[in-house]
Amino acid sequence: MPSKNKQFRETITLGTSLLFCSAWIIYMMLKSPVPNDVGDGIMHYFISNASWENPELFLHHWGKPFFILLSSSFAQFGFYGMVVFNLLAFCFTVIIGFKLLRKYSVPIYLQILLPLVLLKAHDIANTILGGMTEPLFNLSLMAALFFLSEKKYFWFALVLSTMPFLRSEGQLPLLIGLMVLLFAKQFKYIPLLASTFLIYGIVGFFVYRDFFWYFTQSPYQMSNNIYGSGTWDHYLLSYKNYIGNPGLYLFILAIPSFFYMLWKKVIIDWRLWIFSYGVFFGILIAHSYFWATGQNGSLGLTRIATQGVPVFIIMNLIAIHNVPWSKNVVAKWLSYCFALGIAYALVTTKYYPKKIELLEAEIMKTADYLKNQNLRNRKVYYHAPLLAYEYGENPLKQNKKLIYYTFSNLDNDLRTILKPGDLIVRDSHFGPLEMLLPLSKIKDHPDLQIVKEYLCSEQIPDALNEKEGVIILEYKPNIKTFQGSDSVITIKADQEYSGLNAFFPKSNKALKLKLSIKTNNDGFALVYDHNNGASYTFTDLKASEQFNGSFVLHGDGKTKIYIWNPRKLNGKIKLEKIIIE
What is the mean pLDDT of residues 17-45? Predict the structure, then answer.
């Protein structure tokens, strides 16, 4: 039993290590000119921030419902609030890790490495500073590992039940936890693994009328290959990003230590090894497969491999401690020098604070331009989250000017969604894929006029090899008007149907039609039919009364507009005005 003085010194040593890391995070947060993750990180902030105004966002699948629930109060204080939330998640992860290491008598000179090694991995630091979901996921993993070591299976199962609602990868620790409980014969706790799913399922039933919304509304589809594919060894070669050289060194040292433990029959609860190593390597293998085969919308992001790194490092430190050489005074001072070296590397790092990238600078210029425009009732359709962030607007709240949008059918969206004068901000990163606006769609488009361009000073290598930058387009529909006395149709009694499509221009694009007609007899009707009744309207025409209507002529050739003569009358229909947009 260590003396009180020794305990105090150890607490101060560990506290100094964690305080240094916390101060480093806060400093880098304050010095960064923009959020560290200007894409997903800003979107997570938007969702959590707007959830108090729109409670349905608490079930936002991509945003991760349980993460939204816990982070939403912090998000009300702005993006810094999200970083502080992640900083707290990191601190609690490390504190629980210290408790685990102390439980297995790991010396203080190895314990202090935990927060430093974690922070030295660029992706871990980036997920904290970027307001991402991974830090809370890692906190839950660490808590689950701690409860497993204490054989508190109730809390172990309860924590695991929340993990699919923190990250989609949370299904893996849930499965491994099920196996652990089965082998440990703790059958009575297995139903608890479904507890969070049941709660969210019931809530989803009342909101969506769908108990299984977690599966039916998943944004991740195995066939989704929008981002292409990569190589099988991508994550192995990118280890510096998610585990760093210090983390790799600890793993290399842990391998012979693990075999030494087997040789000497040093017993450490096998369930801890299965859980921690299973989660870390399982996520690594799964995403290597997704990226190599181009499935599940994988982008090859290395930050996803940070999930499981803290529990992985913990078990490596425990393994290293259980070999005789680690207790040598030389090992002790080498460990302290190693810690100081990591601290020095963090202070002198070139990766932080974040620097504004070329395209980000142009997006920020675009936001400044929009601030100086009198938009009035005009809307701005965009896809780069940084644009809305710099403009100072959360697109998920009410009465917004900026609309986060994907153009699934550009021409149809222009006719049915946008209004003349609305703007489209198309950037070269999100524009081609997520926004579905490759340059071929917008170049020389008759209804889109370029009003401003912000091009990067240098070409950034990318798969599309297009000039990087931002294009602001205004929707100015090309309007054609047809008017004249020759547009008259004579209806005979034996003609039940008389088509009008011959009077309209043919196009493979959707057109917006405004039609003014007048008849000299009652008994006729104007019928609009698209795709054999999929969209159908019927309007009685009154004699000598002008009818004005708006319709969409879809470019698939399945739209029919005709005069119906059910009473078999003679008469005339005059097309007084046809406006095509």
Answer: 95
